[in-house]
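SEVERITY: medium
COMPONENT: batch folding queue
REPORTER: lab tech (J.R.)

DESCRIPTION
The queue accepted two submissions in a row. Attaching both inputs and their returned structure tokens so the on-call engineer can compare them side by side.

ATTACHMENT 1
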Amino acid sequence: MTTAFLQCIEDGCHRKHTLDRKDYRCDACGGMLEIGYDAPRVAPQALRQTWQSRKSSSAIEDQSGVWRFRELLPFVPEGANVVTLGEGHTPLLDVPRAGEWAGGVRLAIKHQGNNPTGSFKDLGMTACITEAAILGSRVTVCASTGNTSASMSAYAVRAGMKAVVTVPAGKISAAKLAQALEFGAVVIEIGETFDDSFRLLRALTAELNLYLVNSLNPFRLEGQKTIVCEILEQRDWRVPEFIVVPGGNLGNVSAIGKGLRELKELGLIEKLPRLVVTQAEGANPFYRMVANNSAELIPVAEPRTEASAIRIGNPVNWKKAIRAIRATDGMVESVSDDEIFAAKAALAHDGVGCEPASATTIAGIRKLVASGKIPRGADIVAVLTGHQLKDPEISLRRRSEADLARQRLRVEPDVNKLRAALERVLASD
């Protein structure tokens, strides 16, 4: 019999709480909570075989790259249904040209843009909306830079719940906004930054009995931690030297760190990869904290970057993230927007597209190799968090006039003029 509970992460506290609460702060010290389990020991080989065998099952939960690993998520009561859209099972692709561009590393990308709503958020959303359904919640809410709103809206409507989203006014990608509206969400534009909208929304969730699904919610991180199971399974359980993730609200690195810790405790892996977080220079409070060896994170009041998904100045998960970095002897790097878009272009030479925030990983790897902190030839998995079409306006705006003139031709509907245009294309390098 497995017992699941919420537990404070603060040293000297670790107080346990029941799962049926919507305020994820410790009653004793106000610290952040995570989900813990008292579970019977299972042989590692038996777990691997069980997870592998489910790939041939037609059951919807077995087709999910989250719930296929449900032994790591035993908070769902027996008989309860999970809310799933078949998320996960995303590709792990070698990208040799990008690896060479980044400094001569053996690079593979885990592309979370292949999820149902186009981002890694779906891994966490299936878990926390399932918990919302268990609790009987009727209204789910989130503050968002775009991807969370799209994901929550899809999973909420799947579960028959109302979705309400707050976003910074005029700062959300039209593509991401369209997704949330398509799924029936009510979108409230408020404040100038994600941090503004999150702070205001969080102040009202308990009063209005709303179910908050931002990554403060520990069930989100439970779903997101399964990405490491899939990465390692795709690598025949060979642990890479580095796993690199973008850093916004820092839920991803926190979740991956928790997943790695649990896999090691279960005997599924013997060593941990080093985790690397990459942030954009205009929104890099976590990088500054680590670089300055500070005990506390100092928020960035006005975060600025064209990588909108990580335009966050006060990441709520920094305490969980620093624990993951320290446990894995990890690193944090900061890159400029120009470096981000250069990395995005490098990935395109391998036929891989992603939203700008994802490309911070490749830019960060290049910078760390150049500084000698990552050796040439290192075995690296970079997580790409969002789909290429999540921020199309920025990608088009970043194309030079020369590139656009070369790539977008207009000719009159005349066969001779079309022939001439094609001949010019064929004659060019």
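ATTACHMENT 2
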Amino acid sequence: MSVDGKWNIVINSPMGAQKAALDLKAEGGTLTGTQAAAQGSMPIANGKVDGNNIGWSVSITSPMPMTLEFSGAVDGNKVSGNVKAGAFGSFPWSGERA
């Protein structure tokens, strides 16, 4: 299943549900694109694709500077996984194709 395209995701963080929009493109084992949320739009980094499994990171500055490390899997028009938020632990996220 292709990960290419636009996705709407929700991160279930201790600060409540955080919505984000992804625009992703896979080339071989590399994943590129952008992630847009309340803090603005930023390019994803360290993007990887392995079959249906995906992973990437984004650096945020609000509410505090940290790198969010996403891992997950595409299942048809749905996607889900976990995001590691530094010392704050790991939280589930999920979404669907826009």
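NOTES FROM REPORTER
The first strand starts at residue 5 and ends at 13.
No errors were logged for either attachment.
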